[in-house]
Amino acid sequence: MATWSNFNLQNASSPLMEQIIFFHDHTLIILIMITIMVGYLMMSLFFNNFINRFLLEGQYIELIWTILPAITLIFIAFPSLRLLYLLDEINNPLITLKSIGHQWYWSYEYSDFKNIQFDSYMIQPEQINNFRLLDVDNRIILPMNNQIRILITATDVIHSWTVPSLGVKVDANPGRLNQSNFFINRPGLFFGQCSEICGSNHSFMPIVIESINIKNFINWINNYS
User: Start and end of every Cytochrome oxidase subunit II transmembrane region profile domain (predicted)?
Assistant: First the structure.
């Protein structure tokens, strides 16, 4: 439930999402410091009866307010580039999951196993009491504490496969296969939605991942086959 008490990013359920939250907090602190400094200078000029001509023009002041923003951008750019390369790196995935976007539902294929594929439709609101407009009839079952690779495409228009708590957001383009990865570090249900406006039912194609331990996952694979 969205309330003012949780008006923030979702709790991280993967190491990459933890790094994204750390970077968000790091950048926010820098922005707050810049806002306070600029606000203080503006207020001091507004309520000052004297005009400081050295503050309005001069070689030294021009040099200072050119160098300071450059240093500030370095403190933002380096962590950002590190995080960007971490998001693209894939290390020996245990399972490959293929997600295909349709108007307006998702279909999934477990590429490492034969005949494990299914469509995932949103459960109608009148059929369920909890997780309104978020739950689906066929959830994605994945093992926790394992590297997962996901391949994403679409059959008709552009969609976007997004699970915020895992830090995953990848466009699903027709005729193109995009790739990403994630690592789920705890069991539970993780909800996502299509984040690209794809038509009239764009808001009704949710994503649900159910994270379980590896033993239960193997049992699920055997029972499904």
Answer: 1-91
